[in-house]
Design a protein that fits this description.
Blueprint lengths: L2 E5 H14 L1 E8 L2 E6 L25 E8 L4 E3 L6 E6 L1 H15 L5 H8 L1 E6 L10 H4 L10 E5 L3 E6 L2 H7 L6 E2 L2 H17 L12 H5 L7 H6 L7 H4 L7 E7 L5 E8 L20 H19 L11 H5 L7 H12 L3
This protein binds iron/sulfur cluster (2 copies).
C-alpha cells in the first residue's frame, strides 16, 4: 500500500474536492473545544485538535437508532443506514476503540446495523499533534495505531504523510491531485512523531503494565476504594456517555398512536445509571452506587478484555476525567491505588 506526501495547500484542495462528491465528517472547533460534524469546507477541519467532546463511535452506534419498523398485519422492516461517508481525524486511541467495537459487534450474533455503517465508512485516522490535558494513551499502548483505518495521516510540518492501508484508502488517495511519493526523510519525520507520542501522551502514568490489570482486578473486588469513590458519584452516567469503548444499549418499542404502526429503537445506556440493571419484577442487580462504580472499571480492565483476547477496554482518551464533576472517574487513579495496596503479582 502506498505512502504519499501532501503539501498542506494540496491537502486543502483534496478535502474541498472530496466534500463535493461524498459526505465528509471531520473534527471542527466548537467554541474552545472540538467535536466531529458534517464538514462544509476544508478550512473548518482541525487536525490539530486535542480531544473531541464525543468519540467517533456515534457514527457507527448512534445515541438513538431505529432498528425495525412494523405495521400490524403487514410484518416488519429492518432499517439500515447505508450512506457512504468519509470520517476524517480519528486519533489513534479512538481508532483502537473502534477496532474493539468491531470485534465485539462481530461476536456471537453479528450486529448488521453496526456493520452497515462501518462498511460504508472510509476512516482517515490522524496522529495526535496536541495532547489533551488528561490523555494517558501512552500508558495504555494506544498512542499510535497500526490497523483499522483506511488512511493514516501524520502532520510532518509543511505536509501530511498519508498512508493507505486498504483498497478504500488507496482509492481515496488516488483523488489527491499533486500528491508525491513519500521519501526516507519524510518517513523519519513520521517516526519521530510516533516516538514522541508513544512516550508523551501520558498525563496520568499507570503504575503497572496494562496486561496486569485483569489479574489485579481479580483480587480487588472487595477493596474499599469502590465505596470511597462512589460516595461522591452523582450517577450521572457522563463517564459512560463520553467513552469510546462503552457500547451498552437499551431496546425500546415506540408504538404509534394508531396502535397499528410502530418502531423498535435502541439507545445508549450506561452502567453508572440507576436502573441500568433493573429487570422485570422490579429486581435490580447493582442497586448500590459502589457496585455500579466498580462495574465500569471492571468492564474496562477485566470483563471486556476476557471477551477480546486481553485488550484493555480503556484506551486512555481522558474524556471521562474531563466529564466527571466530582473528579472520581479517572481509571488510572483507581488502578494505581489498587497497585499500591495490593501489589502486582
Ligand atoms: S474509561 Fe475514560 S479514559 Fe478510558 S477510554 Fe473510557 S472515557 Fe477514555
Ligand atoms: S463517576 Fe463521575 S461521571 Fe461517572 S456517573 Fe459518577 S459522577 Fe458521573
Amino acid at each position: 500500500m502506498s505512502i504519499k506526501k501532501l503539501k498542506k495547500d494540496i491537502f486543502v484542495h483534496f478535502i474541498d474536492n472530496l466534500i463535493r462528491t461524498v459526505k465528509v465528517i471531520g473534527v471542527q472547533a466548537k467554541g474552545e473545544r472540538f467535536d466531529y460534524g458534517l464538514l462544509a469546507s476544508a478550512k473548518d477541519l482541525r487536525l490539530d485538535y486535542d480531544v473531541t467532546l464525543q468519540p467517533p463511535k456515534k457514527y457507527f452506534l448512534p445515541p438513538v437508532e431505529t432498528l425495525v419498523t412494523y405495521e400490524v398485519g403487514d410484518g416488519y422492516s429492518s432499517q439500515y443506514d447505508c450512506e457512504q461517508f468519509v470520517l476524517i481525524g480519528v486519533h489513534p486511541y479512538d481508532m483502537v476503540a473502534i477496532n474493539q467495537l468491531d470485534e465485539l459487534f462481530r461476536q456471537d450474533n453479528v450486529d448488521s446495523h453496526y456493520f452497515a455503517r462501518r462498511d460504508n465508512a472510509t476512516i482517515v485516522a490522524c496522529d495526535v499533534v496536541n495532547p489533551s490535558k488528561n490523555v494517558f494513551a501512552s500508558s495504555m499502548g494506544t498512542a499510535t495505531v497500526k490497523n483499522g483505518y483506511d488512511v493514516l495521516l501524520t502532520d510532518i510540518g509543511d505536509s501530511y504523510l498519508a498512508e493507505a492501508a486498504t483498497e478504500k484508502g488507496e482509492n481515496l488517495l488516488a483523488k489527491a491531485a499533486g500528491a508525491e511519493e513519500a521519501n526516507k526523510e519524510d518517513l523519519n519525520k513520521r517516526q519521530q512523531v510516533w516516538d514522541k507520542n508513544e512516550a508523551g501522551l501520558n498525563k496520568h502514568q499507570l503504575q503497572c503494565k496494562v496486561t496486569d490489570l485483569p489479574r489485579l482486578l481479580g483480587r480487588a473486588y472487595n477493596h474499599p476504594v469502590w465505596e470511597e469513590k462512589a460516595k461522591t458519584c452523582f450517577n450521572c452516567g457522563s463517564c459512560n456517555m463520553v467513552c469510546p469503548t462503552c457500547y451498552c444499549f437499551d431496546i425500546q418499542d415506540d408504538v404509534g398512536w394508531d396502535f397499528i404502526t410502530g418502531k423498535r429503537q435502541r439507545a445508549w445506556d450506561g452502567c453508572l445509571l440507576d436502573g441500568f440493571t433493573k429487570v422485570a419484577g422490579g429486581h435490580e442487580f447493582r442497586k448500590k452506587r459502589a457496585d455500579r462504580f466498580r462495574h465500569r472499571l471492571y468492564r474496562k480492565g477485566k470483563y471486556v478484555p476476557e471477551k477480546i483476547g486481553g485488550q484493555i477496554a480503556c484506551v486512555g482518551c481522558g474524556r471521562c476525567i474531563d466529564a466527571c464533576l466530582p473528579d472520581i472517574a479517572n481509571p488510572v487513579n483507581v488502578y494505581n491505588r489498587l497497585v499500591a495496596d495490593l501489589g502486582v503479582k
